Amino acid sequence: MIKIGRNDACPCGSGKKYKKCCLNKIQENVLLNVEDQQDFNELLPKLFEYSKQFDGELQAIYQRYSSTYEKLKTGDSKAFSKLLFHWLLFNKPLTEDDKSILEKFVEEHSDNYSETVSTTLNKWLELTPQILSVLKVEKGGVVLIDWLTESIHYPEHTELTSQLTEDDLLVGYLYPTPTGVALGSDAVLIPDSLRHHVVVEVDRLFEEFHEGVKDPYFFVEHFHAFLSILAHVSIVDLPSVGFEKIPEQAFAVIDELYNNIELEDYSYDLILLAMEKWYHFASEQAPRIQKVGTYAAAIEYWIANHQHQWTKQTFKQLSEKYGVSPSTISARFKELNSVFSDVTERVPHG
């Protein structure tokens, strides 16, 4: 974590010392008349109302990615669902002309507002979910740093920011306002107990699906997978397995699995669960792995045939995909299914 001293260079890049620049940064006050203030306060509710005409497209994808949240505690489930819904509104192209619902709303309604509110609304087009860490807590508010881009943010002081402490890690949106930016009420604080596990899995996500490049555009495009990581580490409590106990070929099986699936194929938390259960199986059973594709195909079959998964696979389809026989996949699947299904529902065979 970067620490900023009073005499250090200001992280905003001005070249000035921190104490002479953003330490005492005060957002320029923009006086809003009553009508503008009301219009701004109603932007999000009106966007929600506008989105109802896209319910068909929204609900199909929302149900696809939110089914995992049913296993969470009520408060966590609501928080994750809220973030997912906002991502679908702000960032997911869902309309016939491949635009987000927010983009369509701005196109159709921006001219209905004053210049101040319209300018703010257009800035919302740059809304993206962010992993944010609290860099510093000052008397007048907090300094946040984006975990991926290392950009510095000074959100307006609110009841939410007043509850943050240095080094807190959270995920959410920074909403442009007429006076600056505000940390949204949809922000989710990642508990310290889960922080290391979350960071490890996010690093794995980039490594396996984006060549290790921590690209914010990839993060936004696949934000549902990041939420699945949060859900997974909040739910699953499998005992840890030391890497030294896992046969080398077992890692090759997971590499083969990752090489043959896409992030859009399945709920990512189920992929993580399958990986962890495979490592436990491999460390305890020490299976003889002659061809990694046989077990990789069996694991994918186990994933694909779970409830709420939208990509279904047969043994024949997987045999063509992995270059192994359907009967071999079936045999390996039966071997795995008897062990894998101690936490989740047993996957039917056939």
State mean pLDDT (0 to 100 scale): 88
Strand content: 5-15%
Major sheet size, sense and barrel closure:
5 strands, antiparallel
Global morphology: globular
Helix segment tally: 14
InterPro entries: SEC_C_motif
Pfam family, one: SEC-C
Protein name: SEC-C domain-containing protein
Secondary structure layout plus pairing:
Layout: H1 34-41, H2 43-51, H3 55-66, H4 74-90, H5 101-109, H6 115-123, E1 130-138, E2 141-146, E3 152-153, E4 169-172, E5 174-177, E6 180-183, E7 188-190, H7 192-209, H8 216-221, H9 223-235, H10 248-259, H11 268-285, H12 292-304, H13 315-322, H14 326-340
Antiparallel strand pairs: 1-2, 1-4, 2-3, 4-7, 5-6
Helix pairs in contact: 1-6, 3-4, 4-9, 7-9, 9-11, 10-12, 11-12, 12-13, 12-14, 13-14
Account of the protein in words:
This protein has helices at 34-41, 43-51, 55-66, 74-90, 101-109, 115-123, 192-209, 216-221, 223-235, 248-259, 268-285, 292-304, 315-322, 326-340, and strands at 130-138, 141-146, 152-153, 169-172, 174-177, 180-183, 188-190. The protein has a five-stranded antiparallel beta sheet. Strands 5-6 form a two-stranded antiparallel sheet. Residues 342-350 have low confidence and may be disordered. It is globular, with a radius of gyration of 23 Å. The longest helix is centred in the middle third of the chain and has 18 residues, at 192-209. The N and C termini lie far apart (51 Å). The protein contains 14 helices and seven strands. Helix 11 packs across helix 12 (292-304), helix 12 (292-304) packs antiparallel against helix 13 (315-322) and helix 13 (315-322) crosses helix 14 (326-340). By secondary structure, it is α+β, with helices and mostly antiparallel strands.
